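User: two proteins, same treatment. go.

Assistant:
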Amino acid sequence: MLAEEHGAVLTAKAKKAGISVRYRLVLCGTDAGVGYLQARSVDDQGRSLGHGALPDFENGKVPKTIYKHYDNLFRGFYGFHPTFDEDNLATVLQDCVGLLDVAESLGAQSAVTESLDIALLRQGQVLFQSIANSPTVWSSLAVRIKSPTIMKECLIHLVGQWNSIDDCKRSSLNAGVRDICEVKHKELNLVKQAIEVRIAGHYPTVIQRSHDNTPGRTSYANDIYSWMGLSLFRHWFAQEVIEERNRYAKDGGAELYRQIAHGGRNYLDLNSLADFFEYFPMSAKAKTVFENHLFLVKEEAKDFVVELMKHNSQLEVNPEEPLAHLTCVDIDRADMPWYKKIKKGGGG
């Protein structure tokens, strides 16, 4: 349409007068979708043949939004940044999607995708919060504009929320995105399983003994409170796993793993111990000693879940109000769906 041979051949007089118009494109069919461009003839003086006023205005009214999108597209062709309404995320998103629709209709996405990515990322934390809330929707746009940053955020939240995403929403995902999520989710579950095994089989260092000096009954008896604390901890952890509050939970085990990571009285607190002391009564002093030994068991358990506490998202989260899912999955540029294809069933 804009090939050299389709352009008007201007006269020397026209060129000397500063006329450079050689093409005219008319936007048609905007009542149904993004419309289409139709080439119109231009004479050797740069004038459109058989056409009068420009169609951009109707009775003095502001041009349709679609004209703005086409204007931004042509700005992209010439290396200029598009003009967006950046008052808030909603207006930016509306302008970005409109421009992208127009660009895709002409196969010209590459001319605008970088500008779209930059405009969205300028929304900062508002954007990242929106992605955390609706990663399935944002992943579709991320694929269209090939944004590594937005796609990484989507994948982190999708994998973290995978157990709570129903089949309908999963099927609506881009096939490449869905495959990556399935692989990353399986990999993360293997990590969680290994962590749970280590927690269940861990013995605190304080009750371990050396082979150098064969310990007697008294040596082990002195650690009775440590063994009781370990027994109660394992009882509690076994119940959590049996009731599937671990990696099988809707939150992927986020609440359980965070309790372990925080330790202290975030679980098995004094109120919880009341039932335990009903079966194993102790003096006030003995209860304090027992709680201190239980505290040490919890402290050592923290180390096992450090990997799961990583926050790889750019969303700033208040520690007092954490997300309902984990954000620890590692996503690299090589994981982007437009860089590689992943075989289903891989990664685990």
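Protein 2:
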Amino acid sequence: AEEELLARVEKSSTDGAAVCHHGRRLLEILRGQVQPLEVLQEDNLLEAYYSQGVGRQKTVAQVAEYMDLLAHKSPDMNILEIGAGTGATTLPVMQAIGGIDGSAPRFSSYTFTDTSSEHFEKARDKLKPWASVTKFHKLNIEEEPVSQGLEDEGYDVVIASNILHATHSMDSTMAHVRKLIKPGGKLVFVETTHDLLRTSMVLGTLPGWWMGQADGRQWSPNMSQQRWHDTLVQQGFSGIDTAVHDSEEARDRCFSMMISTATPVPIKTIPDQILIIEPDHPITEIQSLSHTVIECLRDMGSSASITTLDQTLKWDLSNMECIVMTEAVQPLLMDMNTSTFDAVKHVILNSAG
């Protein structure tokens, strides 16, 4: 009965075949008698697992569909793919965005990258119809990309399919990804956001599975969708704008196709005019603080003045930003009369900030 069950599982999917094949050799792997990568590479099982595993083709199709919509909107995009490998994601994407069977390509360039040039010749053959708009470039995303010959903020879209997690530091990796993308450009990526037992079973014996341990990814290199969002925000992205999954059932999900936007780097400026609003009867510490702030602002080229809240009604605040210190002595709303309320409204509604 057990052998019959295993035979059914093995024939059911690429994942099933990988689990069964790996499981039969697990004792040898744990004893160090055979390397796990050797086991998984037998009969091209690992390549099939990465390209045809449960949910993988669905998420690649989702990437291609999104790129089709994006190309309709912006047919002059410069696209870069990180860790393109054998082109399993590249080909469906390029078929979706044109340049084959007489159609014009709805993009300006597609830069195919990988950590080594091992797969470039096969990829060139696979992508031959797009030879005039395809570039090949070695890229290790764990290192600064501009120093590797790529353009700083030179790409409208960066695609990454199941590759970003395979790095030691997600903050460093995503900072490098951000350097590639123009402000307002898109990151389109696929990652495992929910570890299933079969995934850990197949890949958990590979050394690369544990490379994120020092980065807080203790049991796998993968991250939840929420952690991806937080990491993206910290590294100059909008977070997760949109996410679609390989299964409608949350418990069965493994892969997510996620989209994020590269946010412009904020330009910090000091306002030209600043008004410091003190209490009617400021204590010595408040007066000292106000004068210190004024000196600092003047050193930075700003004009700063001091007044009280009631006196602000006499000021034109349209081009002024206000620093309000009135509550340093007591809560403003505790005992507010009509004139004070009018002054508060004047500051809130009319000042520049």
